[in-house]
Every structure is written in C-alpha cells, then in structure tokens.
Amino acid sequence: MRQVLVPLAIDPAAPPGGSVLSDAAGSTMGTSWSAHLLVPAGVRSNLGEQMQRELDGIVGEMSHWEPDSILGRYNRAPSGSWHALPPRFVDVLDYALQVAADSGGAYDPFSGALVNLWGFGPERRYNQPGFYAPAPDAVQATLAQRASLHPVFDRAGARLLQPGGALLDFSSVAKGYAVDRLAWCLEQHGVRHYLVEIGGELRGAGMKPDGQPWWVTLEGVPGVDSPATVAALHGLSIATSGDYRRYFQHGALRAAHTLDPRSGYPVSNEVASCTVLHPSCMAADALSTTITVLGPEAGLAFAEERGLAARLLLRRRGGLEERTTTAYRALLQ
Known about the structure:
Radius of gyration: 20 Å
Strand order of the largest sheet: 2-3-7-8-11-14-15-16
Helix content: 25-40%
CATH architecture of the domain at 3-41 and 194-329: Roll
Largest sheet: 8 strands, antiparallel
Number of strands: 16
Structural class: alpha+beta
CATH topology of the domain at 3-41 and 194-329: T-fold
Number of helices: 9
C-alpha cells in the first residue's frame, strides 16, 4: 500500500495568472540538476543561465574535486595561515560545525583525510586499480592526526585558520545547500512555484499548473522491496543517505561511503537508507548523513529530540524494516 506524506502547513496561493511552465537543466558536482518552474508573466531573465552560474560559483568555492576551489586551496595551505571566506562558504561551514557539535562528532566537515583514506575522495579511488582498504594502524593514525588539529573558525570575521593538514570535505552538505541556492535564485526573480533537484536531492514550493503539489517518490533501496511512499514537496526539501550508492566489499564489511568520524570506519549498523524531510535541503542533506552514522537507536533519538521528519530503512534478514520519527508520521495522510 502506498504511503502519502503531506506538509502540515499549506499555502493556498495559486500561481499568478499568465504563468508559464518552464524547465531547465544542466550539470554540476559530477551529477545533473533540473528545475521545473512556473514563470510569472513579465519575468525576462534567463533563469537557466542564472541557476547554472550560481551552481558554478558554489563548485568554485566548495568542491574538493577542484584543486583551485577555495576549499582545495585551504586544504593545501600551510600551517598558521588564515583564509578569507565568501558568504556562501561561511553559511555552509557554520551549519556543518553546528551539526558536528550537536551530534557529538558523528558528523565532521574536517574528515577529508578519512574520506581520502577509504578511497572516497578525489584521488586513489576505491574503484580504481591498485586500491586497497586501509590497515587498522592507518585508520588510527588518521584519527589521531584529526584529533590533534584545531581549525579556528572566525564567524564574525569570515575567516578560517589552517592549523596544518586539516582537510575540509563538504560532500554531505554542499549539494543540499546548492539545491537551496537554486530555490533562492528563483525566488529572487519572483518565482514561487517550482521543483528543483540535484542528484536526487529536491526542494519544492507552491504548486503545479493543475493545482497539485510537486509529488516525488521517496528513494528506496535498489534490489530490495521498499515501502512505496510519495511526498508533496510544498515548502519542503528531501534528501536520502544510502549505503548502496558508493561502496566496496572489504571482507565481510560492506564499506559504504558514509564514514563514522569517531571510529574511522564505514558505518556498519544495518542502516541501508535514511531520508529526511526539512524546509532546508542543506539541513536534510547533512542530517540524513548524521542520523545514518548514529544508527537506528541513537539516530532516531537524535531526530526525535529535534523534531525531525526522518525515515530509516534497516537491513534485516529477509528484507527491510522501516523505522520513522513522530514528525514523519505526522505527515502521513
């Protein structure tokens, strides 16, 4: 039986008369992006170009794949150097550090060295010839190095200290932030009815021309029967963290790309998928990763304490078990 999620707050405002349904799409962050929008009469801007420029700017600041990005230059910078940060970078770092503090270290934007060690960074990839999983001594050495580093974020001064060897990685927050910036770009031009998406992370507002909300299907686990669920993205965003996207087998361990910064190892807690619905896609992105790392019990408790709408799909013998929060169940119709 299909489940249906509907937001508790509905804005009944219809699209302005004369609005035209338009689509835009492109590439960013190693994946694709798309937008469906109702453009009010009189809007003459090329919104597709505006959105692509916004995304290119974010990549130029936060990509760990681009050596000349602000993040890339910071990661290579010498000890004791201060780095001026643009407003978008400040917003993302500030939020990521808050999630790190709230989660007791289950989320860490400075875990780039660990990501690289396990083959999920820009070099020495897990799916390339010659890669081998790190030895326990290498994992412990990486954790010890991270513990010894103390980057200083001067929020008021919009600058960041490189203590020497600190490696930022925004992989679990920048894509969600970029979705939010697509929405911001549209709203700056008077567009209030849209669905925007980057690599499966989505944000919707308003409604379609027929008065229906922007319905999306929640991501399931490939190859396993998953609960069929659709959500009305009306003032909501959605992001899913899953162990099936990038992984390799390391003995009996399914080494997924989601790493626990506390242990230094890929998560191994039966969480196959975590979906979070939230007004901010940046928040949904980072929080779905955090809950996955915390695991079924601590993750759900973390989500409940914060009133988050979250769904976990757990790998059990013979299939999946669905676990949800109170806020998630409140959206069910």
